[in-house]
Write a structure and sequence with these properties.
single chain; 727 residues; alpha+beta; Multidrug efflux transporter AcrB transmembrane fold; Alpha-Beta Plaits; 4 domains; five-stranded antiparallel β-sheet; four-stranded antiparallel β-sheet; 25 helices; 63% helix; elongated
Length: 727
Amino acid sequence: MATLLYRLGRFSFRRRGLVALVWALLLAVFGAGAATLSGPTSDSFTIPGVESITAFDTLEQKMGTAADNASARVVFRAEGTVADDGTRSAIEQALAEVAEAPHVASVTDPFLENGVSADGRTAYAQVAYDIQTIDVSETDREALFDAGRSAESAGLQVEFGGDATQGVPEQSAAEVIGLLVAALVLALTFGSLVAAGLPLLTAIIGVALGVSGVTIATGFVELSSSTPTLALMLGLAVAIDYALFIVSRYRHELFLGREPEEAAGRAVGTAGSAVVFAGLTVVIALAALSVVGVPFLTAMGLAAAGTVAVAVVIALTLLPAVLGFAGLRILGTRGRARLEREEQAAQPFGARWGAALVRHRLVALLVTAGTLLVVAVPALDLELGLPDESTAAPDSTQRKAYDLVSEGFGPGFNGPLLVLVEGAGEGGAVAGTEQAQAAIAQLDDVAVVAPAQFNPAQDTAVMTVIPASGPATDATEELVSTIRDLAPQLRADTGVSLAVTGVTAVTLDVADKLNAAMLPYLLVVVGLAFLLLLLVFRSVLVPLKAVLGFLLSVVATFGAVVAIFQWGWLSGVFGVESTGPIISLLPIFLIGVLFGLAMDYEVFLVTRMREEYVHGATPDEAVVGGMRHGTRVVTAAALIMISVFAGFILASDTIIKTMGFALAFGVAVDAFLVRMTIVPAVLSLLGRSAWRLPRWLDRVLPDVDVEGEKLTRALEDSPAAKEPVAV
């Protein structure tokens, strides 16, 4: 592979005008396609085979209820009672105005539909929309708020809840912040504005192509509205990293006296090989999200994987072409002086750190691993769920509405269950519904069972069950299971089927689905990556060490997330206004993204160690040599990613804040503690055995020559390759 990429690098450098033109045309075509072929995105949440979501579809078909349409709740709180003449009149007038708001399909009357609390001080009305949540505009929300708040003139407190009240999160400046930080880190790393600008330029072009491709895909398949954001975030991060690695190697080759075209070929042949396999690990981790069985996660993973693949191709072709345009300006006066000092220094920081780890390898391993295991302890208390208004900011109207309903009616009113009963033929659901209603009313933790509503054929009915406990409690989870356990007996007695749905049931089902998918996903990702790393390093112990190190990073990250966002430790430092269960999607999402990035650092750092080893260095010398050349690049790459992800911690949305923290913390732990501390210590402890491969396996595996040993031998007798050039 190194030889093939060497030729590709030289070709791209030599024919840089043609290569740049091809990429410019592709960018124009994709841009035009994104502008003309794009379609709407969707926030619909469907998972095949999940009872609660399937029941939602049945409700829409049989009852005419579009379960995924937006809804809102208007809550009124009076100083006296809401039944007072003036107060009741103000509420009724406000709800009449709400009914006239854009896209409002219906509004319940709290005085006729049990919407008044026992103490008479609180009332609420449900508002149903005829459009989906994503289509509710800011104007629609303001119309709802203005209409409801008209009752405040009568001395009422008015608060709002429901998905229709949730505005689209403001566009974060994290990407811009990330680019600025990346530019600063690159400038400090290379000491040259040209060298700093090239990775940014090629990264922006690659991300623009990837995101344009995702946008075009929305015209043909249904994609989540967050898919382009994920593709942008990951594509930008890895594209900068890949370009950084190749540019760093190119500058090193120039310093050794290579002619620029030869330097570009060698940089792509060696560092480019590592980029290919690093990119493959990210693609595997993202594409493997398809095994989870959640369609929108599959789409997000494939879209992000495609963007990463584009970043790899850009790094192997467009980057050497751009290096050709830059010429020796890639070094810069200050950059060249700095590079020369570092190359001639007997002990640069990376080498000193590597030497210290080799001398104190056992202590370094035990202390670092022990620290991470301690940080991981809170992960034993990990609770998963989907966000609800109980975790909203305390001063938000959604949280206030949630609290008012809990105080006035009981916590279960914020998480009602919908029980769907289906029978065969006209009137087939009547007897079964009556039996189900009577049985459910006798269950523990049931506060209210509302009268069932039938469709015209009376073969389908739905009843609302209000738990006595809150939506996120173990008691409510047990209640859902108990109601579902009634289904077999009900079918045997009356021939009807029973299903439990509603937001609370969906939350529980999604968490169960994702928990069940966790192990298969880990096995697929880790298994495929292990085989890939086995091919790269031609060693069994190195891939095994890489995977174990990643698992250590993940559990430590989960521990930190639980401690801060679930337990509330250091919540003030990170601006966490309320704590609660961790979003169900986070573990799988974090595993996929963090695994890909962790293997990036593994490949970047350890390939340089293996390169030193196969060229004759002892195992400890290889570790120190690899750290000498790789520490600065991995540090810069990690700082860039940490900065990009940490920018999302500033978001007001708890989910985005949690994901930003988890990714930033995970990258920091994996890069600095695992890859640059534990990995060198373990390799030093293993010695030559780290690089051994059983003979039978050595014969089976193809030699991809990632470290460029064959390439180096082939170029040894090439006069052109050895011809020096003044730098």
